[in-house]
Amino acid sequence: MMALKLNKIFFILCVLSCQNTFSQENDGPKPPKVTDYKNDSSYTNYNNLRYKVAQAQINLLKNDGALLVRLKTNANTIAKLKTAGNIDLATQVERETMLKNKTIIASYQQEFTFCPVYFFYSNFSDSVKHKNIQGIFVDSNLLVNPNIVCNATFYLIAEADKVYNSSLGIVPESEASKAIESGTPTREAAIVLKNRYFIQLHKPFPFFQIKGNTEPSIMISHNVAYFNLSELQSQVKKYMSSQEAKPLLKLKGCVSALNEDLFSFYAKNKGYTMPSSLAQYIY
């Protein structure tokens, strides 16, 4: 009966929430040729700008920045189940969502040390976009806690998502709120880094991670109280289908690999002085 119930939960989540799976490849999509999107002004001088923008972003992230990790609530799925009278199933989805979010938080807590890291729910995405980030961060009880304050002058967003062969080049801030991604998704990634308008970054910035370290380090962030990741992973294996569990179990290694890549990229570009003409692209 338990297996049937879990299968039913998995099917509903697949239909309503479009759960992610992950590729084993670790090479990224090639930067598209300018002629692929020659009508998009964001590709003007793209091949020159993308290097400078990446250098500025990595220095800002390291020296006075933060990483904001977006968590899903599955609120719409849960509400639909409750409306349909599936209270037990709604409760189960709530518990699984909580388990997933705790596992995500614990993975970053243990492995991400490049800059401070904070966690917010997706319903605060508009606030994050407009730099209204006070009173939105999640504490160790997965509750929004106004006492968690982020004073970073620059931040990037991290979440599991598709990686795109992007239709967007280097978008100035004046156009960012209206920018729409219409490129081709190439794969699913455990982590994709985006700017505060949720536009994925570009190479050479190490903006996504698919393959994880097999022996990640154990380093704990000070931003949110520590969860026992090993215990959470045991619960993930016990209560989730293998397809749902796989990305959560490998996330710790992916966070570790991303952390290393960021340190490596910073070491190569440390001290870059951003010209004033570049400011419109750094947000």
Briefly characterize the structure.
The chain has helices spanning 2-17, 46-64, 75-83, 87-111, 125-129, 173-176, 229-239, 242-269; strands spanning 65-71, 117-121, 154-165, 184-194, 208-209. With 283 residues, the protein is an alpha/beta fold.
Protein described:
With 283 residues, the protein is of the alpha/beta class. The chain has eight helices and five strands, in the order H-H-E-H-H-E-H-E-H-E-E-H-H. It has helices at residues 2-17, 46-64, 75-83, 87-111, 125-129, 173-176, 229-239, 242-269; strands at 65-71, 117-121, 154-165, 184-194, 208-209. Strands 2-1-3-4-5 form a five-stranded mixed sheet. Mean pLDDT is 86; it is low at 1-11 and 13-26.
Topology of helices and strands:
Blueprint: H1 2-17, H2 46-64, E1 65-71, H3 75-83, H4 87-111, E2 117-121, H5 125-129, E3 154-165, H6 173-176, E4 184-194, E5 208-209, H7 229-239, H8 242-269
Parallel strand pairs: 1-2, 1-3
Antiparallel strand pairs: 3-4, 4-5
Radius of gyration: 19 Å
Q: Low-confidence spans: pLDDT under 50, at least 5 residues?
A: 1-11, 13-26
Please work out how many helical segments DSSP would assign: 8
What is the helical fraction, as a range of percent? 40-55%
Into which percentage range does the β-strand content fall?
Answer: 5-15%
Shape: globular
> What is the average per-residue confidence, as pLDDT, rounded to a whole number?
86
Task: Tally the beta strands.
Answer: 5
Strands ordered across the widest β-sheet = 2-1-3-4-5
Element string (H = helix, E = strand): HHEHHEHEHEEHH
- Main sheet: strands, sense, barrel: 5 strands, mixed
Class computed from helices, strands and strand pairing: alpha/beta
